[in-house]
Design brief:
This protein is of the alpha/beta class. The chain has 2 domains: 2-210, YjeF N-terminal domain (Rossmann fold), CATH 3.40.50.10260; 217-491, UDP-N-acetylmuramoyl-L-alanine:D-glutamate ligase (3-Layer(aba) Sandwich), CATH 3.40.1190.20. Helix content is 37%, strand content 15%. It is built from 17 helices and 18 strands. α8 packs across α15 (426-439), α15 (426-439) packs across α17 (479-491) and α16 packs across α17 (479-491). The structure holds ligand NPW, adenosine-5'-diphosphate and potassium ion.
Length: 494
């Protein structure tokens, strides 16, 4: 897992470490690491043209010292100063090494023609939208052939949240110090980082437990069938989805569960979705139910439930959501089920695990009051955490960078996925898949994590046209393609 710490904790750890070291040691460590990465990225350091974008704080100091190191190795280093002040010792070091300061009006051609640009405008001290001239300098990085290396954080990205409010640097590589920052792992900030390289500056012992962790495949412990397995031991998942009006969601959800490794899928709904599920997934055991509180009595035993996709939001849907949540089994609530829950949050008072899989709009409804969809998209980390605490559930927030939160645990960031997944019905596949993993005995957090990982990977595999010779090798996909690609996604793990 890759770990990230909140900015306040990074600063506290830095303070504690700095108190034990000679002044300036940490900045030298950071600058040495940054310069080493730049040397690796450049085909030749000697004679390379390097431009530094330098803000008024220590982030600019790192860039200046790194520039001095590159200048000493023969690079032609030019610095553009964004503020009225710049780190004085860093500036002196650059000049002493043969680097020079460019006037502001030379910044644009310099960045455009450079071999490498170091962004040292703002780091963890950046607050709010970049002001001028920082913003104009950050925009220059969007239109250059130079390799853009962000120092600690791409300027314009909020290090704590990943929020981007206006102009921001678009980096090929982000060299971050001591520990990752949440904004480097969470979109929209993560999309600005390129590859993230972590430089050890010795903070380790002073850092507390991480606030955010990115999931790695070796963290996923998906149970595999053994010789003693039978369909009941592998897990029976019950799916309550679909309505006379919406049928596709049910078919996709069942598909996600079948391909997600359930020993058996029991599907319960009204006649039309039952008929369609039977046609598409003869493996599923179907039951026609009425939309009443007693509906589940006919369904048979399961180990976990999924409720919500295509269910509608009327009184009948509410009766079904209530019936499922009144069981003492793990339950995943998705889609229309979440809309029902927004007016019946009392149903979340239960002992067994509950997994909620909202997108930002659904989470806004669930949190109510002041929550707005756009705010949630912009500050995903804060909202997913708040949701897990207020709703006493495992919350998986979908969208660009899926986050998974449980109270008092680090938030998990899913590294797989592709914007091609932003198409109707892919969420239904995810809920069926996680339901199957829950029924197989994984904890709510494990099942949500593994489900998000496999789903994102299946999306990528489905979207990439291997061997097609196409330029990007990617193509649009439908939700059923994600279902089809799930076995290949599982195969990458075994
Ligand atoms: N501490 C340590 O031990 C170590 C720290 N290290 C490094 O220090 C970095 C943190 O340095 P920091 O605290 O000086 O803040 P920093 O990121 O340079 O930003 C402040 C500057 O940005 C400006 N500014 C802010 N917002 C702005 C906006 N919206 N628009 C425009 N300008 C804006 C702000 O201007 P002001 O508001 O003061 O006018 C000020 O000039 C950290 O990321 C890492 O790289 C490493 O060397 C390792 C050891
Ligand atoms: N921009 C994006 N980048 C990556 N994944 C995305 C993006 N937008 C949506 N997704 C993923 O696509 C799926 C869409 O789910 P959802 O919004 O529930 O759609 P539906 O309800 O139509 O099935 C989720 O897994 C989500 O994480
Ligand atoms: K920066």
């Amino acid at each position: 897992m890759r770990y990230a710490h909140e900015v306040g904790k990074v600063r506290a750890a830095e303070q504690a470490l700095m108190a034990r070291l000679p002044e300036g040691t940490l900045m030298q460590r950071a600058a040495a690491g940054l310069a080493a990465v730049c040397c690796r990225l450049l085909p030749r350091v000697y004679g390379a043209h390097v431009v530094l974008l330098v803000g008024g704080g220590d982030n600019g100091g790192d860039a200046l010292y790194a520039g001095a190191r590159l200048a000493r190795r023969g690079a032609r280093v030019e610095a553009v100063l964004a503020g009225s002040k710049a780190h004085p010792q860093g500036l002196a070091a650059l000049r002493e090494a043969g680097g020079r300061v460019l006037p502001a009006d030379r910044a644009e051609p310099a960045v455009r023609h450079a071999d490498l640009v170091i962004d040292g405008l703002t780091g963890i001290g950046g607050t709010g939208a970049l002001r001028e001239p920082y913003a104009a300098l950050a925009r220059l990085t969007e239109d250059t052939d130079a390799i853009v290396v962000a120092c600690d954080v791409p300027s314009g990205v909020d290090a704590g949240t990943g929020r981007v409010d206006g102009a921001a640097v678009r980096a090929d590589v982000t060299v971050t110090f001591g520990t990752c920052k949440p904004g480097l792992l969470i979109d929209p900030g993560a999309a600005r980082c390129g590859t993230v390289e972590l430089i050890d500056i010795g903070l380790g012992a002073d850092l507390p437990d991480p606030d955010v962790v990115a999931v790695w495949p070796e963290d996923l412990h998906i149970p595999l069938p053994s010789p003693e397995s039978d369909k009941y031991r592998r897990g029976v998942v019950g799916i309550v989805a679909g309505s006379e009006r919406y049928t596709g969601a049910a078919v996709l959800c069942v598909g996600g569960a079948v391909r997600g490794g359930a020993g058996m899928v029991r599907f319960a709904s009204v006649p039309r979705p039952v008929e369609l599920v039977r046609q598409r997934w003869p493996e599923a055991v179907t039951t026609i139910i009425e939309r009443t509180p007693a509906a589940l009595e006919k369904v048979g035993r399961v180990q976990a439930w999924v409720v919500g996709p295509g269910l509608g939001t009327d009184r009948g849907a509410e009766a079904l959501v209530e019936a499922v949540l009144r069981t003492e089994l793990p339950v995943l609530v998705d889609a229309d089920g979440l809309t029902v829950l927004a007016r019946r949050r009392d149903l979340l008072r239960r002992q067994a695990p509950t997994v909620l899989t909202p997108h930002a709009g659904e989470l806004a409804r669930l949190l109510g009051r002041d929550a707005r969809r756009e705010e949630i998209e912009a500050r995903r980390l804060e909202h997913v955490r708040r949701a897990a605490a207020e709703l006493s559930a495992t919350v998986l927030l979908k969208g660009s960078t899926t986050l998974i939160a449980e109270q008092d645990r680090p938030v998990r960031v899913n590294p797989t996925g592709t914007p091609w997944l932003a198409t109707a019905g892919t969420g239904d596949v995810l809920s069926g898949l996680i339901g199957a993993l829950l029924a197989g005995g994984m904890t709510a957090l494990e099942a949500a994590t593994a489900g998000a990982y496999l789903h994102g990977l299946a999306g990528r595999l489905a979207a990439s046209a291997a061997g097609s010779g196409a330029r990007t090798g990617q193509a649009p996909i439908g939700a059923h393609d994600v279902v089809t690609a799930l076995p290949d996604a599982f195969r990458t793990l075994s």
